[in-house]
Design a protein that fits this description.
The protein is of the alpha+beta class and about 150 residues long. Helices cover about 25% and strands about 40% of the residues. It has two domains: about 5-40; about 40-150, Immunoglobulin-like (Sandwich). The radius of gyration is 25 Å and the shape is elongated. The N and C termini lie far apart (about 75 Å).
């Protein structure tokens, strides 16, 4: 006596066999799928912190200035961080694409600005803490976001 589960399993086995004969899987499909899944988040991963002048640990230290560069392969942000007399920081930035808005995020605090026509922007009086920058652009009517990894001031 057969059970419904066993009948289903036999039916699915016959369907697999039929499709294997009628429309076999391309030999390279598995490799292409693995490559596609692996490449899915590359543009976000490429935006990882690239230090231009100093090693990562020197963000907090005796250095007078720090230059950071972030990129996702199509858009780049350059940040120049300097200390101020009151112990806080000034962040001067440049972006190489037309940006609608630049956000400076520190925890729950979000400050926004718009870059000039030349791509320049600045944030004054920035306190110590974990910081990230988020850039919103519009390319071909589609909004794109480049968010930097957090860095510590």
């Amino acid at each position: 006596m057969s059970t419904p589960d066993r009948e289903d399993a036999e039916l699915f086995a016959q369907l697999r066999s039929l499709w294997r004969d009628v429309d076999p899987m391309p030999a390279s499909l598995i490799d292409r799928m693995i490559a596609a899944v692996a490449a899915e988040g590359l543009s976000e991963e490429y935006a990882l912190l690239t230090l231009v002048e100093q090693p990562l640990g020197a963000v907090r230290g005796d250095a007078d200035a720090l230059t950071l560069q972030f990129s996702d392969g199509t858009t780049s942000i350059l940040l120049h961080v300097t200390g101020t007399a009151n112990g806080r920081h000034r962040i001067d930035g440049w972006v190489d694409t037309a940006a609608a808005e630049i956000e400076l995020r520190q925890g729950d605090r979000i400050r926004t600005t718009s870059p000039s026509e030349t791509g320049r922007f600045a944030f004054d009086d920035v306190p110590d803490g974990f910081t990230s920058v988020r850039l919103t652009t519009t390319v071909g009517g589609e909004a794109r976001v480049l968010a930097t990894p957090q860095f510590e001031l």
